[in-house]
């Protein structure tokens, strides 16, 4: 927050956010902090194993997709096996950390788009034709829609959101926050079926078979609710950005250029833009054309799907990188930025140089996430919490709201949406089915809670990357800055989205094609 922005006594809510930021930023450097988190997990896991901490429940075996009743015991990292695990898996934890490869490969293309001047020129031209009032909803909407392509929004849209706001003379941190809110807070919402839908539906189906062996949850069974949710998230994200986050940030006083206008685009840049944009169009049209045939190499060879386990989704990161890289090289060549292939190679090296702090942070963050998973502490907490909710005795919309809150809290401890649902679905889907509620309804409630707290949990895979992006615009920013900025989104999304589900239940609306709220 910019201290110069305080023109009057801050509200109680603002003081609360300021307190979060102050405390959070007084914590050690993020690299040190994640190292301390990892160390804490090591110690706590040993204590929990010594005291025999455990939990029992039905859990889906992800290898066989069969339900198995298991007793999960805390696993010590200070035992012989634990120490061997830490030593032998440390490198693998780092290199196999999912966001690492995604971010680095994507930055090869996005970095060229920025370094060549293509992205800057494109944004300056966009400013001249795009009304200022639609910028925030546009960024949030694109963030929500980006989840159809899995995690690509994190590494592409969030940094672009900051640049777009700068192009309009607005605070880049507000643009980053708006994009982050759409990409992560609205991760489950979409106007179409995304990669998450079939994944969760498969787990829900297996859990439902505990009660009805013939029950099937389809990928489209949450479509109606998530379609409407998209507009709700865009509305709430816009209000929070424009009315809470940006006013709190104040005027941007950083050293980076902002407030660009179209007049700054020279004749040579316009020629370069035309050449690059035509190149981009040809690439996109060619990609779409290759996807159309029923035997396309981009389709799932067994189902013909372009979404579910298809080469298109599996190879999306390299494709996105090429879509950024090729037009950027064309732009740089025509604009005179790149004289030859050596200049392009130097730009690629520069792209990787800027990611040094992120790579260092990922190393320790990956150890923390891996150690926490190995210790089984998150699974034990989830199963024990589920048992407490089962014993609460409440029903109806109140029960679903409690489950949303519970899912949101579990999300603070476990990062993967599918991993959490693998644990929670066998407990809650059958339990709610016996109370008359459909698995589709339970799945919707879980998705709401799981999405809302993505914005404030360091266990979210891309959280470390967001911290690095923020430091580009504010060197003083840290984990406290990110969390305090995103808390309003979490609260508004949690309350607004829960209210939408309550209204949906009271009206008895279907959640998707043929997917009802109640059984029978």
TrEMBL record:
Superkingdom of source: Bacteria
One Gene Ontology biological process: p-aminobenzoyl-glutamate transmembrane transport
Molecular function terms, GO-annotated: secondary active p-aminobenzoyl-glutamate transmembrane transporter activity
TM region(s), chain numbering: 33-55, 97-119, 126-146, 152-169, 176-196, 223-241, 278-298, 310-334, 355-374, 394-414, 421-438, 444-470, 491-511
InterPro entries registered for this protein in UniProt: AbgT
Keyword Metal-binding: no
Keyword Transmembrane helix: yes
Record's keyword terms, sorted: Membrane, Transmembrane, Transmembrane helix
PANTHER family: P-AMINOBENZOYL GLUTAMATE TRANSPORTER, P-AMINOBENZOYL-GLUTAMATE TRANSPORT PROTEIN
Protein name per Swiss-Prot or TrEMBL: AbgT family transporter
Organism of origin: Feifania hominis
